[in-house]
Amino acid sequence: MKLLLIGESREGKFIDYSYELFGFAERLGAETSMVLVGRDGDLPEYGGTVYFADSAACGEYNPELHKKLVLAAIEREKPDYVVFSHSSYGWDLAPRVAAALQVGQLSEIVGVADGAFELPCCSQKMRRTVKPATAMAVLTLQGGAFPATKPGGAAQLQRLEAEGSDKVKFVGYEAAEARDIDLAKAEIIVSAGRGIGKAENVPVIAALAKVLGGQLGASRPVVDSGWVEHSHQVGTTGQTVSPKLYVACGISGAIQHLAGMKKSGFIVAINKDKDAPINEVADVLVVADVMQFVPALTAKLAK
Ligand code: FAD
Known about the structure:
Strand content: 25-35%
Bound molecules: flavin-adenine dinucleotide
CATH superfamily of the largest domain: HUPs
Number of strands: 17
CATH class of the largest domain: Alpha Beta
Number of domains: 2
Distance between the termini: 60 Å
Largest sheet: 7 strands, parallel
Structural class: alpha/beta
């Protein structure tokens, strides 16, 4: 099986999550080559073929040009699958490539099973297993679903050039607004999930964070409901954290949450469901009602 991996670089740096593409290829035991639009010097640690285009000429991002470059590499490699990360770059570019080739696309792959791919469904509560219906297919991989693997070696460069297009012009990147807290540096994080029930219970979780000398984190529904600020959100659309201790309070362990915290040193999960997926990464699972257990634990620790 042959995969054409679409790597990403930004402002002269190969992006770490692109290494997950190699982890996916390894899981499939597939041959690989890569497409990368970037600056000289931001190549991955990978000894295979890299179809490389200089972003100074093509722009850091230009969907028309980048699509042409990917199509040119597909023409040469004739892969079975063209694989993107499920990033904002992948969201935008993958369907353009699939439409140009008139092939199927499977988005947000979280696992592989016997020549088929697992995709989340029913608001991430279940997985379905799907086989592409076309000979070639475009895939996007959910962040954190596959290990980031560095194959090592020096890339064999094949330079790509694309004709200009002035339909889209890259203007620049804008830095995100400064956050009131920096969870990425916290050594202890206590996170609130939907299982805490209501906004009024957030201070109970915050009190445990305080007594432990840590920061308050949260899952996305807690943020979407307006119970806490987005700066506290952990996960693919929040922050990636790796504290020494992570306490997940009423959090199920959806892949988008795990992607942001599974590298934590020691993980304690408090959940009334002993089969909650967070159990897959937890060192300790406390099966209890979070609103009874957390205040009791905080009181003990305060003593
Ligand atoms: P739920 O999945 O509803 O889980 C609640 C848990 O609480 C359950 O396990 C339940 O058993 C437990 N519970 C209920 N009551 C109690 C109680 N009284 N005591 C103890 N346990 C109790 N999510 C993120 O967190 N971060 C992200 O960055 C993120 N990005 C996303 C990006 C995309 C593109 C998509 C599609 C989704 C994203 N999500 C993200 C959402 C993610 O898929 C899940 O929906 C979310 O993580 C679920 O949050 P939760 O675990 O708090 O809630």
